[in-house]
Design brief:
Blueprint: E1 3-8, H1 16-31, E2 35-40, H2 46-57, H3 63-87, E3 92-95, E4 102-104, E5 113-116, H4 119-126, E6 130-134, E7 137-140, E8 145-147, H5 153-163, E9 168-173, E10 194-196, H6 197-205, H7 213-222, E11 226-230, E12 238-241, E13 254-269, H8 275-285, E14 290-297, E15 303-310, H9 314-328, E16 332-345, H10 355-365, E17 372-376, E18 379-385, H11 389-399
Parallel strand pairs: 1-2, 1-9, 2-6, 3-6, 4-7, 9-11, 10-12
Antiparallel strand pairs: 4-5, 7-8, 11-12, 13-15, 13-16, 14-15, 16-18, 17-18
Bound molecules: adenosine-5'-diphosphate, aspartic acid (ASP) and magnesium ion.
């Protein structure tokens, strides 16, 4: 008998019929003789709705209270899923994150899992029950409810698979797997059969939604192999696992776009050695993460510094920086919040040349201006006008022939 962790996302438990569908799928897996730990998300839209309700009452809600509120989304679906199983005579019990022994650090709204005590779950599994666990939540050492960051049910599933030493971890969603690009934007995007942790991690942190990036990081660290697949059919999905040699044959595995970016331009900065340090220290102190950075000396002798931040952080940057520029003795700030980041990712880039040239030519031919460029060993990222982001994704997808089966 194998132990399988299955995670069902928001759309998969979106209404009564879908919860009944999940119960039938659990019934099938159980009929094959397997033990099951099932992680569910809140119904799709519920977490957003709860955040909106909090903000309507207080535009800066206390984070402890916010987590208290957000945790109810998953508490609804675990109970309903257990009831759906009882209705077809399957013994099942629902657990909140705290009851499942998921202990986190003290950071509300994006807590990290510190430890899982799987004993209560293992006891129920032994007694023949299906254990249903609320995704996205845990408890900290002070006994407070915490949440694991948006999309955090993925992390709950991966972490439980590691803690319970599950034989399999399946992430059920509303698409057949991980595609070479967002299938809603690129019509001929293709399902990827196998992808390495590093590629999945880059794609997830660069804007591809299917998996929460922290969950992929966790899977890599603990060697949890998982499959992303659909809860609406029985097609094989995408296996995410350690890199193997043949994966390098494919130059670009996938394309991701993040539309929530902004660009900050500081021009005419005095050309002093410590200027950049002063600016980025001030941003770090304000918890603003900077991503792509370009600095160059203008013909006037002043320095121009351009960088990207998350769109929500642009106003914070504009607030923090004037004081720094005053101290440095000059510089003007402008923020542009109409930026998107397009990235192509693939472990094959390590061994293939000309990837940047192909990408830039494709964007040039499509009339798309590149505003900033960043690279790492397995990715190339460019900042473009947000209005052109979907066109850029289609152009990159075509340039690397990603619609073709490999
Ligand atoms: P869940 O609620 O199951 O966690 P998410 O909404 O978080 O599901 O992620 C699944 C969605 O991600 C799909 O509906 C799909 O539209 C979107 N998506 C974006 N890019 C991709 C991609 N490259 N491959 C697959 N799905 C993608
Ligand atoms: N319900 C949470 C969210 O919407 C967690 C999840 O769906 O994974 O972010
Ligand atoms: Mg998700």
């Amino acid at each position: 008998m194998a132990l399988i962790v299955q995670k069902y996302g928001g759309t998969s438990v979106g209404d009564t019929d879908r919860i009944k569908n999940v119960a039938r799928r659990i019934q099938q897996t159980r009929a094959e003789g397997h033990g099951l730990v099932v992680v569910v998300s809140a119904r799709s839209g519920v977490t957003n709705e709860l955040i909106a309700r909090a903000r309507a009452i207080n535009d800066r809600p206390d984070t402890r209270e916010l987590d208290m509120l957000l945790a109810i989304g998953e508490q609804e679906t675990i109970a309903l899923t257990a009831m759906a199983l009882h209705a077809i005579d399957i013994p099942a019990v629902s657990y909140t994150g705290a009851q499942a022994g998921i202990f986190t650090d003290l950071v509300f709204t994006k807590a990290k899992i510190k430890m899982i005590n799987p004993k209560p779950i293992l006891k129920d599994l032994k007694a023949g029950k299906v254990v249903i666990v609320a995704g996205f939540q845990g408890i900290n050492e002070e006994g407070q409810i915490t949440t694991l960051g948006r999309g955090g049910s993925d992390l709950t599933a991966i972490a439980l698979a590691a803690a319970c030493q599950a034989d399999k971890c399946e992430i059920y969603t509303d698409v057949d797997g991980v595609y070479t690009a967002d299938p809603r934007v690129v019509k001929n995007a293709r399902k990827i059969d196998e992808i390495s942790y590093d590629e999945m991690l880059e794609l997830a942190s660069l804007g591809l939604k299917v998996m929460q990036s922290r969950s992929v990081e966790f899977a890599k660290k603990y060697g949890v192999i998982f499959e992303v697949r659909s809860s609406f059919n029985h097609n094989p999905g995408t296996i995410v696992k350690e890199e193997v040699a043949y994966m390098e044959k494919v130059v670009v595995r996938g394309v991701a776009v993040d539309k929530d970016q902004a660009k900050v331009v500081i021009s005419n900065l005095p050309n002093k050695p410590a200027a950049a340090a002063a600016i980025f220290n001030a941003l770090a102190d304000a918890s603003i993460n900077v991503d792509m950075i370009v600095q160059n000396v203008a013909h006037t002798g002043g320095v121009d510094l351009t960088f990207t931040v998350q769109r929500d952080d642009a106003s914070g940057a504009v607030k923090v920086l004037p004081a720094v520029l005053k101290k440095l003795g000059g510089g003007e700030i402008k923020a542009f919040d109409n930026i998107a980041k397009l990235s192509v990712v693939g472990v094959g880039m390590r061994t293939h040349a000309g990837v940047a040239a192909t990408l830039f030519s494709a964007l040039g031919d499509a009339g798309i201006n590149i505003q900033l460029i960043g690279t790492s060993e397995i990715k190339i990222t460019v900042a473009v006008d947000r209005a052109k982001a979907d066109d850029a994704m289609r152009a990159a997808h075509e340039a690397f022939g990603l619609e073709r089966k490999v």
